[in-house]
UniProtKB/TrEMBL annotation:
InterPro entries: Glutathione-S-Trfase_C-like, Glutathione-S-Trfase_C_sf, Glutathione_S-Trfase, Glutathione_S-Trfase_N, GST_C, GST_Phi_C, Thioredoxin-like_sf. This is glutathione transferase. Residues 93-223 form the GST C-terminal domain. Its EC number is 2.5.1.18. One of its GO terms (molecular function) is glutathione binding. Belongs to the GST superfamily. Phi family.
Length: 229
């Protein structure tokens, strides 16, 4: 059987999310790299896979998916059992499952909107988007850092009670934090995490996972204007 295919550049956060869960479950996959500087994701061939002309696209035989979080859940449901990983909490009780669902929503609805503007302002707009190059907008960064501190305070209180967000086992909710936090840690604001020791220790535990390291090695940590990543 041919392996599943992921279409996109591996340094991009939403592509990295999909690769991360494939690596976690040890599934065989083919990465079909797209040159985003050349706009390959906007070509008709890719738009057939992802009608929003975004990366990633994903194909498993006749099944075509887009939206990285949905793709990641499909991967976990398809391969998680064989890998002995229940990251969605679906083989536990409904209470455990509800905790995974809740913290997954927290990542998408609270954490991501707080952290992503900093990453956009400091990295994505100046260094990654072709023709970007603008200096970070200070007021956007400052407002986002304030919002992020609020979220991290809630995480700190939670992580005083359990090793991971949804409980004492790692889950989908924790691992979804990897792509944007990885890039945030390359910005001058990484030290914000030092104010939250439990959160910092949790982050270090996530980063120590072999699957995380395999995916993050395709994500640059030093940015230069005009570089082709
Ligand atoms: N919600 C979507 C977002 C997809 C997305 O915005 N992908 C970015 C890369 S991380 C992209 O393709 N950007 C290129 C563009 O917008 O032209 C997902 O999670 O898959």
């Amino acid at each position: 059987m041919s392996p599943v295919k992921v279409f996109g550049h591996p340094m991009l956060t939403n592509v990295a999310r999909v690769l991360l869960f494939l690596e976690e479950v040890g599934a065989e996959y083919e990465l079909v790299p797209l040159d985003f500087v050349a706009g390959e994701h906007k070509r008709p061939q890719h738009v057939q896979l992802n009608p929003f002309a975004k990366m990633p696209g994903f194909q498993d035989g006749d099944l075509v998916l887009f939206e990285s979080r949905a793709i990641a859940k499909y991967i976990l449901r398809k391969y998680g059992g064989t890998a002995g990983l229940d990251l969605l909490g679906e083989n536990s009780g409904i209470e455990e499952l509800a905790m995974v669902d809740m913290w997954t929503e927290v990542e998408a609805q609270q954490y991501y909107p707080a952290i992503s503007p900093v990453v956009f302002e400091c990295i994505i707009i100046p260094f990654i988007i072709p023709g970007g190059g603008a200096a970070p907008n200070r007021s956007v960064v400052d407002e986002s850092l304030e919002r992020l501190r609020g979220v991290l305070g809630i995480y700190e209180a939670r992580l005083e009670k359990s090793s991971y967000l949804a409980g004492d086992s790692i889950s989908f909710a924790d691992l979804n934090h990897i792509p944007f936090t990885f890039y945030f840690m390359t910005t001058p604001y990484a030290k914000v995490f030092d104010e939250y020791p439990k959160v910092k220790a949790w982050w270090e535990m996530l980063m120590a996972r072999p699957a995380v390291q395999r995916v993050c090695k395709h994500m640059p940590t030093k940015f230069k204007l005009g570089a082709q990543y």
